[in-house]
């Protein structure tokens, strides 16, 4: 034992190579207890093959030591020797704590192999043996959490809230918080996020907490959380987007726009950031910036219908009909399809006095908008102006019951009847 102790001291003092040499030499003349201690030390140092070889011999000598088999199986799994590990685990028969450990390891193994139903069965078999064991409840929670079945995971995590348990550094509070949030139980998730963040704080956790606060309509509260998430990882732009949304809802348009500008310095091609910046610039009445962001978004995704629609809206305000036609036709050329395109083109062609082309587009749009009052009014007026009296009458007749246009439409119909 003294040689192993000496090896430990050397390793702890930074003399790893010398310590390992002493450790390997000590194993040759060690008794079984010392060999076990050496194997555990090898395992802690990541020298799994050396640990496996020692434990393998000990398992052969002490075939009835089931705890030793568990250690052996864990080593085999760490070495990706899954079939050998399963063979060892299946030899553990007695229904006790060791059997539960074996079942939990088998569940992990079966899940990795894609045998989810078998994994679930092993977990519930462990639950039957030790129905009040927190580790088993945690394993069941983790199983369902990994399958995105948060509703089933929640009761297992809830059972652990008064238990002093942590497995592999995973926070039970944060797991419950994430599960509740995923199920839309945002208010219920918040206190568990608050407690979990006291123990573990990283980008993923802060982002989830911020989103939960946002969904719970605690917009002011989520702003500093998103800001802290950005501090942890300024290049993962999803936090910038959520922060800009929170500023937007709070009416802090400039702050929201500024954070998106920072995001675009990280990735100027991020279409979602460009779209959000365009919308906020519009709210700031900065049409030039809004238009610029939309045009940039369309460079990276020419068929993005929302960008085309927003850009066309600005261009109509500016009466830039040629640019409208070019933008819409480019989107169509790249595979975009939207009934509004025909209507927009009809209005744009009308704006540049190409009335035949305008009529063609209005006719193409008719089936989609023949219940839309403003469309029918524009189409009817165009038909009337172009001398297509009968068609105009048919369109106006659809408007004669509209309370706002009733008088105007009646006058136009009277005039049509006079002409006819």
From TrEMBL:
Superkingdom in the source lineage: Bacteria
Coiled-coil ranges from the UniProt annotation: none
Keywords attached to this entry: Repeat, TPR repeat
InterPro entries: CellSynth/LPSAsmb/PSIAsmb (IPR051012), TPR-like_helical_dom_sf (IPR011990), TPR_rpt (IPR019734)
UniProt cross-references to Gene3D superfamilies, sorted A to Z: Tetratricopeptide repeat domain (1.25.40.10)
The keyword Repeat is assigned to this record: yes
Cross-referenced SMART domains: TPR
Xref: SUPFAM superfamilies: TPR-like
UniProt-listed PANTHER family: TPR REPEAT-CONTAINING PROTEIN PA4667 (PTHR45586), TPR REPEAT-CONTAINING PROTEIN YPIA (PTHR45586:SF15)
The protein's name: Tetratricopeptide repeat protein
């Amino acid at each position: 034992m003294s040689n192993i102790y000496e090896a430990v001291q050397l390793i702890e003092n930074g003399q790893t190579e010398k310590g390992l040499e002493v450790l390997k030499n000590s194993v040759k003349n060690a008794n079984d207890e010392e060999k076990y201690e050496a194997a555990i030390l090898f395992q802690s140092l990541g020298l799994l093959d050396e640990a496996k070889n020692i434990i393998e011999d000990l398992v052969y000598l002490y075939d009835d030591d089931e705890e030793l088999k568990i250690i052996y199986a864990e080593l085999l799994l760490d070495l990706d020797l899954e079939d050998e590990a399963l063979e060892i685990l299946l030899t553990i028969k007695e229904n006790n704590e060791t059997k539960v450990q074996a079942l939990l390891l088998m569940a992990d193994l079966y899940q990795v192999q894609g045998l989810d139903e078998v994994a679930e069965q092993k977990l519930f078999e462990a639950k039957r043996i030790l129905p009040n064991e927190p580790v088993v409840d945690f394993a069941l929670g983790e199983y369902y959490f990994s399958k995105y079945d948060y509703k089933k995971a929640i009761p297992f995590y809830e059972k652990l809230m008064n238990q002093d348990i942590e497995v592999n550094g995973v926070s039970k509070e944060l797991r419950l918080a994430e599960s509740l949030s995923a199920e839309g139980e945002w208010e219920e998730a918040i206190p568990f996020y608050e407690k979990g963040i006291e123990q573990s704080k990283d980008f993923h956790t802060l982002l989830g907490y911020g989103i939960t606060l946002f969904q719970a309509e605690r917009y002011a509260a989520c702003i500093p959380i998103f800001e802290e998430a950005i501090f942890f990882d300024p290049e993962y732009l999803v936090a910038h987007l959520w922060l800009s949304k929170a500023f937007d809802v709070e009416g802090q348009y400039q702050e929201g726009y500024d954070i998106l500008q920072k995001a675009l310095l990280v990735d100027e091609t991020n279409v979602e950031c460009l779209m959000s910046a365009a919308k906020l610039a519009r709210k700031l009445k900065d049409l030039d910036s809004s238009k610029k962001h939309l045009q940039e978004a369309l460079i990276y995704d020419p068929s993005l219908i929302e960008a085309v629609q927003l850009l066309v809206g600005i261009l109509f305000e500016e009466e830039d009909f040629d640019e409208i036609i070019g933008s819409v036709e480019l989107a169509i050329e790249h595979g975009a399809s939207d009934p509004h395109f025909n209507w927009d083109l009809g209005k744009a062609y009308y704006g540049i006095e190409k009335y035949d082309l305008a009529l063609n587009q209005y006719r193409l749009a008719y089936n989609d908008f023949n219940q839309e009052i403003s469309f029918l009014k524009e189409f009817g007026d165009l038909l009337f102006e172009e001398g297509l009296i009968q068609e105009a009458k048919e369109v106006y007749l659809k408007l004669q019951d509209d309370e706002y246009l009733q008088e105007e439409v009646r006058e136009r119909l009277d005039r049509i009847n006079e002409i006819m």
